[in-house]
Design brief:
With 326 residues, this protein is mostly helical. 81% of the residues lie in helices and 0% in strands. Helix 3 runs antiparallel to helix 4 and helix 10 runs antiparallel to helix 11. It is flat and about 95 Å long.
């Protein structure tokens, strides 16, 4: 074969050139070494983080800090979602937290029944540290605070009474009067609410000018009202709030506000109950809305629905009477 230069190529060379012409040129593939290196670095960092978190989780668990251990196991479960061990350890720590909070709550209640408020407070705070949303522990701590406030108020009343008699030594009449008040209060606190109130009223009627005694008696009755309200017995608590103010003889803004708030709450409660009963029993709805108005005469919703229900009841009765007449 002749080429442009006038020289000849061997047949083998021609074949090689032809093969090169038929095969398309290809670019070299990009290097995967950097990608593999980055992936390896991430895997190494993740493994190191998992190892450190697991070390912390086991350390906290060994120390009895279940909340911190649960936090670390939860992070591990997120870092390695396919590992059942981390989820199982997290569930175990959460169960330990619930059990610890339950035991602390029981210890707090036992200490409170024994009259040891300091030990009870410590145990209940431990329960809340384990379970910040523990409603029972929160409720008992509020009760402890209420009792402390009551003791402070009672102490103030006692100091006032002592100041009044400081100029003279106590007489047999003073001792007898104190004993008389204590007996009546104990009767009331023991659960004989009706009989205890009757006795306390009798003492106040006989000693209307004894302000220290009246303050003490009013505070005791107010405390009982707060206790009933905290247990959900709101209808029983409201008359005791009113009675506490009467026995004390002087208005207390906090007591007045508490009673007013409870009246409004009861008015709303019986309004809602009336709405639930209205479709199936008009008479029951009327009674419930009448109760709502008795507690809160300013409740416009129950007043409007009460009028509407009474009108509907009258129309229904008239229809029934007309039907009987036919």
């Amino acid at each position: 074969m002749r080429v442009a230069s006038g020289q000849w190529l061997l047949p083998g060379a021609v074949a090689v050139l032809a093969a090169c012409a038929e095969v398309p040129l290809q670019t070299a593939p990009p290097s995967t070494v950097p990608v593999r290196a980055a992936s390896s670095d991430r895997a190494t960092a993740t493994a190191a983080a998992i190892a450190e978190r697991r070390r912390l989780a086991e350390q906290h668990a060994k120390a009895g800090d279940h909340a911190a251990a649960a936090r670390e196991w939860q992070i591990l479960a997120l870092l390695a979602p396919g590992d059942d061990v981390y989820r199982r350890e997290l569930a175990n720590e959460r169960a330990a937290i619930r059990e610890g909070a339950r035991e602390a709550l029981q210890a707090g209640n036992a200490a409170l029944r024994a009259g040891d408020t300091e030990r009870a407070t410590t145990a209940l705070l431990k329960a809340l540290a384990l379970d910040p949303e523990n409603a029972d522990a929160q409720k008992v701590l509020r009760e402890i605070d209420r009792q402390k406030l009551a003791r402070i108020q009672s102490g103030r009343a006692a100091r006032i009474n002592l100041a009044a008699v400081a100029a003279r030594p106590p007489t047999a009449a003073d001792v007898g009067e104190s004993y008389d008040i204590d007996q009546r209060i104990e009767m009331f606190r023991a659960g004989d609410t009706s009989g205890g109130l009757q006795e306390l009223r009798a003492f106040v009627d006989a000693n209307p000018g004894n302000q220290a005694a009246r303050q003490r008696i009013g505070t005791v009755v107010y405390e009982r009202a707060r206790e009933l309200e905290s247990k959900g017995a709101r209808e029983q608590a409201l008359p005791l709030y009113d009675e506490a103010a009467k026995l004390r003889g002087k208005p207390v803004p906090e007591w007045t506000a508490r009673a007013q708030a409870l009246r409004k709450a009861l008015g709303d409660e019986f309004y809602d109950k009336g709405m639930q009963a209205y479709r199936r029993d008009i008479a029951a709805a009327i009674r419930l809305w009448e109760t709502s108005q008795r507690y809160d005469p300013q409740n416009r919703r129950s007043a409007a629905k009460l009028q509407e229900a009474r009108t509907a009841q009258e129309r229904l009765q008239k229809i029934q009477q007309d039907a009987k007449a036919r």
